[in-house]
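Internal ticket #5521
Category: modeling
Description: The requester needs a full-assembly model to guide mutagenesis choices. All entity lines are attached below as received. Residue total reported by intake: 1281.
Assigned to: D.W.
Attached entities:
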Amino acid sequence: MTFDLSRIVAVSLLAIMILFMVLTPLMPFYDPYGQNLAGSLVPMGESSFDGKFYLLGTDTLGRDILSRLALAGQVSALIGLGAVAVSLVVGVFLGLVAGYFRGPVETLIMGLADLQLSIPRVLLLIAVSAIIGPSVTNLAILLGLTSWVAYGRVARGMALSLREREFVLSARTQGATAAWNIRKHLLPNVLPQMLIVGSYEFGQIVVMEASLSYLGLGVQPPLPSWGMMVSEGQSYLALAPSLAILPSIALFILVAGLQFLSQAFTSEGEVAGVSERSK
Amino acid sequence: MSTPMATADTDIVLSVRNLSIEVPGAKGPVRLVDDVSFDVRQNEVFGIVGESGSGKSLTMLAVLGLLAEPLKIVSGSIKLRGRELTSLSFEQMRSIRGKTMAIVFQDPMTTLNPVLRIGKQIGEAVRLHNPGMSSRQVRDRVIELLQLVGIPNPEKRYSQYPNEFSGGMRQRVVIAIAMANEPDLLIADEPTTALDVTIQAQVMSVLAEVRERTKAAMVLITHDLGLVAETADRMAVMYGGRIMETSPAKTLFSNPNHPYTAGLIASLPRVDREVKELYSIPGFVPDLANRPRGCVFHPRCAMSNGRIPCREEKPLLHALRDDSAVACHFSEETAAWRQAQEKAVQIVDREQIDERDVLAPILKVDNLTKDFQIGVGLLRSSQQLKALRNISFEIPKGRTLGLVGESGCGKSTLARVLLRLLDASGGDVYLNGEPFMNLRGTRLRAKRRDLQVVFQDPYSSLDPRMTIHEVIGEPLRIHGRYDPQRIDELLAHVGLTPDAGRRRPPEFSGGQRQRIAIARALALNPDVLILDEAVSALDVSIQAQIINLLKKLQEELGLTYVFISHDLSVVRHISDEVAVMYLGRIVEHGAVREVFESPAHPYTQALLSSIPRPDASEGEGRIVLEGDLPNPLSPPSGCSFRTRCFRAVEECARAEPKLEPRTGIDHLSACLFPGKPSYVLADMVGEAAGHAERTNV
Amino acid sequence: MTTFLIKRVLQSMLTVLGVITAAFFLVRLAGDPAVLNLSAEASGEDIARVREALGLDRPMIIQYFDFIWNVLRGDFGVSLRQNVSAMSLVLERVPATLELALTSFVLGLGLAFILGIIMRMTGSRFVRQLIMWIALGRQAIPIFSFGLVMILIFSVWLKWLPSLGRGTLSHLILPALTLGTYELALYLRLFNASLATEQRQDYVRTAYAKGQGKIQVLLGHMLPNALLPLVTVAGINLGLLLGGTVVTETVFSWPGVGRLIVQSVSQRDFPVIIAGVFLISLMFVVINLIVDVLYGLLDPRVRMV
């Protein structure tokens, strides 16, 4: 894999997505909520009966799809960033602590990780969000708390080898405390790797959120979400395929961009975001 | 280019002519092997010595047609028994590889496939070049090969996996694979570098035996001058991708022609003699992307003095008398330089240290033990591994104690326990007269300042994300005593300039990093420095620089060293006293000269005898210990060395001999029959061979 | 090996206990089962009576052990909507889910294996990169999007295959393809990465030095080593596969456990949700145990323990 090429692809895809999400709301026609009964299911690039032009058409309620796609993207990105932040902090902290101290602390933390892995993430999220009810904040925190394992395992693995590295040992012989070593040596050395995992996980979380929304358990109306838009479009698949296809394309651009980004910084023998079993 | 080797052509197995290998670099191709020519003749051992980056391994990989992707042969010819190899494809080479020529790689732990049975791996080599053989015949041949390389119980071993073999045993398996088709040419690429010295002796003798049987020619690639001088018939010295000189191996040490060779020999600590100071070749291994003009060695050469031919003109290999050739414009001056150098480092006043004996010990270790619990005790009882058993010694201020032993003897565990990186299971350590083992928390952290460490691996000893300034400043910051001026001072101490502080570890070579690690260890003004294999990972010429630096610092700062190493020659050079460890115990302890010149314990004797000696006279016997280190989980009863000892009798199984003065007041040993001089032992080797037990872990 | 086995089985049992505990807390989180069991107009007295009948007035710890006991008997209570045991509802859907999951798993792993070998054997850099880019691209498409595109092409436009339901083999094709290719992308990346790692190992050089050819070395030496990490990671990522069934089943109206769970969510039928989640987790733990035992059989280094 030529890393340069995947870097270029990644950056272009992400740039397109960011520009789309930022610029669309600045347009004069921007209106993600406004319904137009005179213009439901307007095809792409056509005008409604009352003469309004819709670049990407309208949905069943006559809402502008272009505007809704942009707003849904912002919501997804926001949830994704929040979840990545939560899981990165929790995962790196638990992973480093487990790897540096070892012993019962490690057994406990890694046991928790194994346990969490044995309940498929989507199912856990379905169960929890069905019970406590989904909201944007809830989703970000829930997605974050169920995603720490990826960071935790990689961080622990690295901490295990870092703690035996001679610069950590010699800091200990100089009188450094555990907190010093974790802060000064372990954290800076695992962080770049964590950001690579993060960019992969970001994509996964966007997919996860979209899947939940598709199942009706994610973002709730009137806020739009790509997953929900696909689900709404499914009933009109034969009639107006663009309803389901357009949000799918948006999802693809964002997720592929993030995935190529993490791949671009991963060497050949590794797979971003996938860690080995803790043993 | 004319070549000096003029023998009957029919004798020549391998002939390499003007071989050059390049790799693409940022600023155009980088030449890693440059215009190399040599011949290997029937039934001879041809040694290629060089430090890392000399191109010695690449040359032989090219011969095998195994150069990895971006590397390319750009010119030259390789002929095996007269057949040109460079024009053959990978597929065409297959019928030659493993059949006409074979290779033994360096690290036996990784050269075997971990998930395939040993028998299958050897069998592959047999079957591949003998497609007609039945599986029965292949199996018989494999068993025969296992016997040939001295693996006991070949029938049982046949179906085992590599992880059931010790390092030495694995290397025997690798040799068996190489010898499967009785090749004409055997290439041994650092075959013993990853092994302990007593195992090295075993493997070298196996190699000699199989070669004797098949009359194969052998190319021995190594960084070890002693090994090549002892084993090879002829040899080439490589540096910066070029051959510096070729000569009969026997005369290498006595009569080097190239100043690089002479410099290497002068920088090598020797187990059989003492010098005041090692010569150290200045500078670093050349960056081949910016290959020096003229002679590749001239920037580091002691004789060049910037003379114009050295700077401008590549010296070609030209023939001298008695089958030697040298690539130096002024090789006739080498002998004189050498004499002057040897004279300069000769020890004149032999006794100068005894006056300091009255000093109180600065580090006192009393009955230190360390046990590890192996196996989680959920379902079966956990086993106890006694890693350190009753270690006691004292070191007076300003002295060096050398700790030697092979892997698994506990020397690194001892370092970690002393440093409080591991908790001791028993015993005491007094640092400056104060107990050190029972300190906790803040008091421990404060006291740690007095005892610092330099580790082995220069690539893992510095945090790659810090600048050198931050690295050296870290101990100061931990103790809230940060002072930028102190850091510059420390850099100066180890021979670096203050601007080095702004750079990061990846920009430095191994030797420089070790200097930085030393500077960091000195930051807190310690009394005692533990040097845990601190020079073992370095090339000979760089190793001498660091050893000299350590000696200089000791004199200037009055430091006390615990010098841990597997390399007896280095230990002899740097230490005042030496302790020899085996299976977690000190088996001999005494003044350096006493231990090296009249070793009391048979293990020490065997260790010393295993070191390849370049100028060993013919017929001088060697003690080759049989078998491997016993499983430390179930050590032998009585003396733990008895299973490999050539002097063991029944009595040895009864009780462990105490470490006590047996051959002199200050010369302690733990053997019931200490101190027969080694020349007597030479005769005993034969009879010992029969009764030493093989224990394979 | 026996020690390893016993250890692994104990570990799995501990995991199951953990899952049960998680389920217990989820049940509590769902709210007072007494309230959930009754209609909105129930009086406080009614609630108290039901609480007593359900044993909800007892100490938490007793309820917890009670819960474990019930779970072990497969009793997750009665469906709030259908008045039959929640577990029986879930169990009757299990074959459908297994059919889908196993077909996709075999499809994904098998294709990944073949493509991985092709990638290593082809001399063409272009082919290698093309396969890798497609795999990465496929992984970036969520299951529901991919499924809908499949339906659009093969059911709506070409009218070759049914778009929903279960029954004939033709019903299975689209869902299995959707889920299987998602898995394929992941496994192919893993397999390729582990082959790339193995290629750099010293034993590969040894094998070449014996005179072996590229195919012999790939199949005889690298493959047995590269399969090991693939097996473990495939085991761990089975969670993704099982999670994927939930979405796939919804897209294609496949009558499996996942679809049942999603339907129960909209009906707020908590016993069914929890029984479903528990059962899928149990499947995951059991399959992982099998994978680990397999791993032990493949790797002599583990077998010795």
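Resolution: model delivered.
Comment from assignee: The domain at 68-277 of chain A is CATH 1.10.3720.10 (MetI-like fold).
Ticket closed.
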